[in-house]
Design a protein that fits this description.
By secondary structure, the chain is α/β, with parallel strands linked by helices. The protein contains 8 helices and 8 strands, in the order βαβαααβαβαβββαβα. The strands form 2 sheets. A 5-stranded parallel sheet has the order 2-3-1-4-8, sandwiched between helices. Strands 6-5-7 form a 3-stranded antiparallel sheet. α1 crosses α8, α4 packs parallel to α5 and α6 crosses α7. Bound molecules: adenosine monophosphate (AMP).
């Protein structure tokens, strides 16, 4: 079966989309497409797009649909997405979902939506303990009370930083944007006849969740791991 596969990871900020994508990408030979990571790279590069979106991202609002749609359309054509791709943080509005729907159906991409469900109190607690290496981008979920001298990247020793948009006041804005603009995307995708699975993500380990996602994909499409 050489039809491409698309796994849409759907859920609020802090629901574990990036963690799941990192666990599943290599096992399934799928490209990890994180619009948040792509946008942060543009901000770090200081190019025109980066300068345009920097303030928007820091405020917790969503960046314009056209810009994100273009980025994703280009990204899915790269060779590492030949077998398929995991979408992390996209689509985040109904217009984005509508465009994606047309493209997936035109290209006959086998698609599953996984909704990572999590209580907002858990999101707020998780994001307040999330730190990132400013150099290599590795994300760490630090337990409360971690001493400052331990807040360094285990890969390159760089001091960890809080992402600007993980500050509590910005997290509230991101959750508001999720409720207003992103939550309706799930209904749209269900209405467009995609298989959508809800998985409780607040109370289970990342490995348990990844195993369940893999299980669901296998039930839906048969063997999905690399080389199968
Ligand atoms: P994330 O890392 O996915 O939480 O994304 C961080 C920020 O990037 C979001 O708060 C938005 O400002 C922006 N962003 C990421 N993905 C999208 C998207 N699909 N549509 C609009 N804005 C996005």
């Amino acid at each position: 079966m050489n039809q491409r596969l698309c796994l849409i990871l759907f859920g609020p900020p802090g629901s574990g989309k990036g963690t799941q994508a990192a666990l599943l990408r290599e096992k399934l030979c799928l490209a990890h497409i994180s619009t948040g990571d792509m946008l942060r790279e543009r901000v770090a590069s200081g190019d025109e797009v980066g300068r345009t979106v920097d303030g928007i991202m820091k405020s917790g609002a969503l960046v314009p649909d056209d810009l994100v749609n273009r980025m994703v359309a280009d990204r899915v054509e790269l060779p590492d997405a030949a077998k398929g791709f995991i979408l992390d943080g996209y689509p985040r509005t109904v217009p984005q979902a509508s465009l994606l729907d047309g493209a997936l159906k035109a290209k006959q991409v086998r698609t599953v939506v996984v909704h990572l469900k999590v209580d907002y109190n858990i999101v707020i607690a998780r994001l307040s303990g999330r730190k990132q290496c400013a150099v290599c981008g590795t994300v760490y979920n630090l337990p409360p009370g971690t001493p400052p001298e331990s807040e360094v990247c285990s890969k390159d020793g760089t001091r960890l930083i809080v992402r600007a948009d993980d500050r509590p006041e910005t997290v509230k804005e991101r959750l508001k944007a999720y409720d207003i603009k992103t939550a309706p995307v799930l209904e749209f995708l269900e209405g467009a006849a995609y298989r959508c699975f809800g998985i409780e993500s607040g109370t289970r380990t990342p490995l348990e969740i990844a195993a369940e996602i893999e299980d669901r994909l296998e039930k839906e499409f048969g063997a999905v791991a690399c080389g199968e």
